[in-house]
C-alpha cells in the first residue's frame, strides 16, 4: 500500500465540464455589464480560445490564472471598444471566484473516495497548477480541504507541471518518497510525465496511457489499485 497519494485538481477531482459552464456564466455577466452585442456563446468561445493560447506545456512557466484571464478579457473588451476603469481588476477577481464557486462541481464520487482513503490511513496531497486564491476557494466551497495534509500550487513554487520542482516540493513537504507515492491526474504531459520522471507511480483519469502506469475512468477504480488488486494496468 502506498504511503502517500497526490491528486491533481482540474479534470481529476473537479469536473472540467463544469469549469466550462462557469466560463459561460462569467461571459453572461460581462455581456450584461458592458452591453456587448456579441452573444454569450461567441464571447465564451473567444475567451476560452484566447486563454488556451496563453499556456504551453513545454515551458513550465507559471502564469497566474486569474491575471491571465483578466488580461484575456481586457483584450477582448478592447476589441469591442470598451474602456475599463481602475476598479476592473478587483471587480473581475471577485466575480471570477464567485462564479466558479457557484458553478464548478466535483466528480460525484470524489468525497466518498477521499473519505475511504483517509479511513485507510493514507496521507493525501494536492498538486495543482491553479492559483492559491482559486484552489483555496474551491476547497472551502466543496468542503474538502480537511482531506489534504499537503497542498502545493504552481503559484507558490513558481513553476507549473510537468516541472519536477513542484512534485519534489510536494514530496518533501509530505516527507514522502517518490517510489512509495502515487500521483493521479488527467493530463499525460503535465501530470503523468512530470510525476513519472521523479519515480512516482502514475494513474491517469482517462484512456490515454502515455506516461501512466494505470488508467481509470472513475476514482472508485483507484481503491483496488491501492490494495494491489487493480486490473487497470497500462503495461
List the helices and strands and how they pair.
Elements: E1 4-7, H1 16-34, H2 40-53, H3 65-79, H4 88-103, H5 110-119, E2 124-128, H6 132-141, E3 150-153, H7 154-157, H8 164-174, E4 181-185, H9 188-197, E5 201-205, E6 214-216, H10 222-226
Parallel strand pairs: 1-2, 1-4, 2-3, 4-5, 5-6
Helix pairs in contact: 1-2, 1-4, 2-3, 4-6
Describe the structure concisely for a colleague.
By secondary structure, this protein is of the alpha/beta class. It has two domains: 4-15 and 105-226, 3-Layer(aba) Sandwich (Rossmann fold), CATH 3.40.50; 17-103, DNA polymerase, domain 1 (Orthogonal Bundle), CATH 1.10.150.
Keywords:
235 residues, alpha/beta, Rossmann fold, six-stranded parallel beta sheet, 10 helices
